Amino acid sequence: MAEIEERVDRLEEVLQQFVTSVGIEFNKLYNSQMRTETELRAFKDEMKDFKDENRRMNREMNRRWGELANNMGTLVEDLVAPSLPRIVKNLLDQDVLHLTVRYRPKLADGRVREFDALSVTADTVCLTSTKSTLRSADVDHFADEVQAFREFFPEYASYPIVGILASLSVDAGVLNYAERQGLLVLGAGDQVMQVMNSPGFIPKKL
Q1: For the chain, how far is it from start to end, CA to CA, in angstroms?
Q2: How far is C-alpha 63 from the geometric centre of its chain's CA atoms?
Q3: I need a surface site. Which of 13, 66, 70, 117 has the fewest CB within 10 A?
Q4: pLDDT tens per residue, the chain (206 residues)?
Q5: Burial class of residue 144, CB neighbours in 10 A (0-12, 13-18, 19+)
Q6: Measured between alpha carbons, how far is 127 from 124 in angstroms, rounded to an integer?
Q7: Backbone dihedral region of 192: left (phi > 0), alpha (psi from -120 to 50 degrees) or beta?
Q8: Dihedral sign computed on CA atoms, order 43, 48, 49, 55
């Protein structure tokens, strides 16, 4: 009987040691996990701050680049035209087959008209007019651009036209006005020139 009691006591002692050991290891594991989660949250916060700062620097760089190009008179060539294939593909899901910049066609009667940029897909023409600062009057005058395009490019008579206004400076009121007319508006952003319209905006085909 005494031997049994001794074995029970030893078993209880071993169990107690085991419970204590498990508790210590559990606390270590818990504390380690808490440190890991804290470090992970800190890392995520640092990455978010880095991405935000990188995005801000991209916008600032693109703005300065745009101002320089505007001062040199190369805004269309340096910023707008290189961005058009990407924007047209993203928006219309069509590839630009032909891109023309600062084209000056001449009619038989001697009239000449300059068009900033033409992006032609398989069945659509994207007509772009670029302004250093976009104003509501530019939105109103875009109808004249479309009419002139129809006259100077009869070979595209059957093609619908997507109107694009590109600018470094876009006032919110002018942007809303252009959007109501169904025009796409581009401005300097994270990706050189980016779409400024509301998410989900579908341009009108003129």
Answers
A1: 103
A2: 15
A3: 13
A4: 444 445 444 545 544 665 466 556 556 655 666 566 665 566 566 666 555 555 666 565 555 644 554 544 577 888 899 999 999 999 999 999 999 999 999 999 999 999 999 999 999 999 999 998 899 999 999 999 999 999 999 999 999 999 999 998 889 999 999 999 999 999 887 667 889 999 999 999 99
A5: exposed
A6: 10
A7: left
A8: positive
Amino acid identity at 158: S
Find tokens 């006591």 and name the residue.
9
